[in-house]
Amino acid sequence: xxxxxxxxxxxxxxxxxxxxxxxxxxxxxxxxxxxxxxxxxxxxxxxxxxxxxxxxxxxxxxxxxxxxxxxxxxxxxxxxxxxxxxxxxxxxxxxxxxxxxxxxxxxxxxxxxxxxxxxxxxxxxxxxxxxxxxxxxxxxxxxxxxxxxxxxxxxxxxxxxxxxxxxxxxxxxxxxxxxxxxxxxxxxxxxxxxxxxxxxxxxxxxxxxxxxxxxxxxxxxxxxxxxxxxxxxxxxxxxxxxxxxxxxxxxxxxxxxxxxxxxxxxxxxxxxxxxxxxxxxxxxxxxxxxxxxxxxxxxxxxxxxxxxxxxxxxxxxxxxxxxxxxxxxxxxxxxxxxxxxxxxxxxxxxxxxxxxxxxxxxxxxxxxxxxxxxxxxxxxxxxxxxxxxxxxxxxxxxxxxxxxxxxxxxxxxxxxxxxxxxxxxxxxxxxxxxxxxxxxxxxxxxxxxxxxxxxxxxxxxxxxxxxxxxxxxxxxxxxxxxxxxxxxxxxxxxxxxxxxxxxxxxxxxxxxxxxxxxxxxxxxxxxxxxxxxxxxxxxxxxxxxxxxxxxxxxxxxxxxxxxxxxxxxxxxxxxxxxxxxxxxxxxxxxxxxxxxxxxxxxxxxxxxxxxxxxxxxxxxxxxxxxxxxxxxxxxxxxxxxxxxxxxxxxxxxxxxxxxxxxxxxxxxxxxxxxxxxxxxxxxxxxxxxxxxxxxxxxxxxxxxxxxxxxxxxxxxxxxxxxxxxxxxxxxxxxxxxxxxxxxxxxxxxxxxxxxxxxxxxxxxxxxxxxxxxxxxxxxxxxxxxxxxxxxxxxxxxxxxxxxxxxxxxxxxxxxxxxxxxxxxxxxxxxxxxxxxxxxxxxxxxxxxxxxxxxxxxxxxxxxxxxxxxxxxxxxxxxxxxxxxxxxxxxxxxxxxxxxxxxxxxxxxxxxxxxxxxxxxxxxxxxxxxxxxxxxxxxxxxxxxxxxxxxxxxxxxxxxxxxxxxxxxxxxxxxxxxxx
Length: 979
What we know:
InterPro entries: Clathrin_H-chain/VPS_repeat, Pep3/Vps18_beta-prop, Pep3/Vps18_RING_C
Largest sheet: 4 strands, antiparallel
Region (Disordered): 911-935
Organism: Lepisosteus oculatus
Protein name: Vacuolar protein sorting-associated protein 18 homolog
Number of helices: 33
CHCR repeats: 623-777
Structural class: alpha+beta
Helix content: 40-55%
């Protein structure tokens, strides 16, 4: 018995199942029209796989229950066997301990597998909990033969069942609750907490056995109770207040007392009935049901949203002719997702709930005896069947594998596609079938969408729609096909895009001339433009834009060609089109919107001719993005031959460039000057003043400006340019032709050149005297310039002028001369006194001396000073001659270094030869030759260079303060010497 649930190969050969659904066989290997390879390399396991449990019961199996992997069976009269399917090698045997002749009528196991209710033929009930060995009596249940129990799936736990319903053979429905706790209350030690009648079922005016009971909760705390008798199916619907579920379901029955409960009745009865439910997940509400009764099997769905009846989509499967109530009445029924299994005394039949066809039939050998009951475990999804001598179970594997074919045959294509999402070859078959079905029913657009998703030959499908003259469906097919192509399939994409463009253009051409279809035409155009602007088609359209342009041109579709050009960012074509059609404002709008500088440069000449103000506004809006120099051709062309408006707009843009954008291009400034000189001379001087007064500040060409102003007779502007060019004489000469005051302002400009200033003022004075003959004004010139004297301007006056006009000027001049003479006398006296003091200082310096001790050392080398020639400075620093030369040498300029080298060479040349040392000492001072300095003079010159000042206290030290201690060129060598 330890190996009761060990799986093993069934000793009997599995009979060939009566599968009626079409399967892919090995003979179908190959490439079909869909492009998929269909091949079965090994035999697929059947949906219903039967296994016999290796178990020989010591006594006959009376009843059997299984739920939540807990298996219970009644053996013989007084034995109960419990097995945890998770631990099949640890069976548990419990003795009921009955002394009377009572037998087990039925076993009821709750969804948790913890509570077992045993109904006895003596109208008694026993209770056994999974965690105990003790069988306890349900005293309150005594006197009722329990036929069915509805467990509470929401509130049931391992220790308490919660409120449940129990149906009897007398048609009574009781509400009860069972607790597994010992001593549930102080006054009640029995497991049954309460047991009260809530309803009674009848058939033909008489009580009828309650064959099945089921409790489920729908939406908004609405509960449904389904109860069946031999030929009736009752529904009780009612709401239970939130938190009141523990109080039971009696309120639901009381809510249905006012009106007769909803039920369905069938005339034929076989003495009993059984209902089965399919629940997708544990602890959820059932989704469908199958009721085995006299007429056949009633099956359908459970719709919890319906207000009246819970049952929907109800159909009746009538028993096949081989089922005879006299010999092989149906015994039990089990419902799966797509099948219900019907148990007969010698076989099992599986019927597909989709089409009502028997898809599987399994005949059991006679040696095991008649089949007694079939049970489904909702947790493990296993179906159990038992006889008195054997136990079998069915594994249901991939039940939905062929459901798609059934739905497809029923033309329920959406449901068929749901069950073959992970099987592309099946999905293709469904789509092809759906497409063909839609085509035959003249639903061409739906057919096209489905065909596009299949792998059928593209040419065949296209020809099919062409022959049917369904251009709209063909277009839909091409669009859908295009949407599923990969970006790498460039050839196919190009073909479809080109074809679709032609189809769109054909349709637009047909609709365009019909005023009655104007709305349709606009919708078609909008659809076409969406197609052209689709991001997925952008690359293909761009690569083949020449072909698209040709198609658009061949159909004369100018508007869409412009739209396509904008999408392709081919703005040049768009602007050119508008210009050709004299729609200059539209062209400017395109330029302004896309702000392409090159297009502005190209089309501005044309636009400037027709809409100058708007063009200049667009230029100004572009700001620095535009290079004004590139726009000069457009401005020059139409400023010469254009209207006043064009000229004014040209000047406005040039002013914007110069004053706001601060363009420094010489060409721009020169052009603005030319415009001012020719058309707005009143602005010329203001511009010149703003441009600056120094040649480094201005951005126009001075020579060009001078020539331009001279050409147009703008003398004052010429004077301004002369001043900037520092041609003061020319400026004064020209200014005298305009205004004497202007000439005076020019004459004062050369501040550093008094001679030139005097010359310029003399020009002004001569002009005033000779040209204007104004003596008074000439005298004013003397007062304006302190460089002019009366004697400078007297030659300009004619001989007949009386001296009275110059009396005051001559007196002032004489006074200035006298004052100047006095200043010279004072300076001479100061110079004489200074020379006297200098001579005294020289005499004093000759008598000044310093004392050098024998232990004194050189400030540079720190060696005794007296062993070599040395220098003594007033600051008390003392240096050897060679040490001082070495210290001073790096600080000398190139000129002084060169001169020092020359003096040292001359000093060396004056040295006496060895054989001439007998000459007298005083001959050293004799000149060595004509024009040559003496030896003492050379030494004095050398001293002036190297001993002019102390190297530590003089100017050399101050100048070297910003020099590094280490020469940068010798830094690396010095650094390496320290490492």
